[in-house]
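If your schedule permits, I should be very grateful for your opinion on a structural question. I have a record of one protein: its chain in single-letter code and its fold written as discrete structure tokens. Would you kindly read the sequence against the tokens and tell me how you understand this chain to fold? Thank you for your consideration; the sequence and its tokens are set out here.


***
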Amino acid sequence: MVARLEDKTMLKECLKAAQERVSGKCGCRAEDSCYGCLRNYRNQFAHANLQRGAAFDYLDKVLAQFE
């Protein structure tokens, strides 16, 4: 997978998929997160700090660099 990310097109598609995941379709507020967007068992120590909206905004800025 990492080798495939060297390809700019593949990297952009992965970032778009990540942004789609945190787009809000899960139903949680931008200031929060849920198991539909950012949370999982392995990052439970950080659940209180995960913000779906901040992740979306960051990915938006990164994706803008591709244009």
Observations:
- Helices lie at 8-21, 52-64.
- The two ends are 23 Å apart (CA to CA).
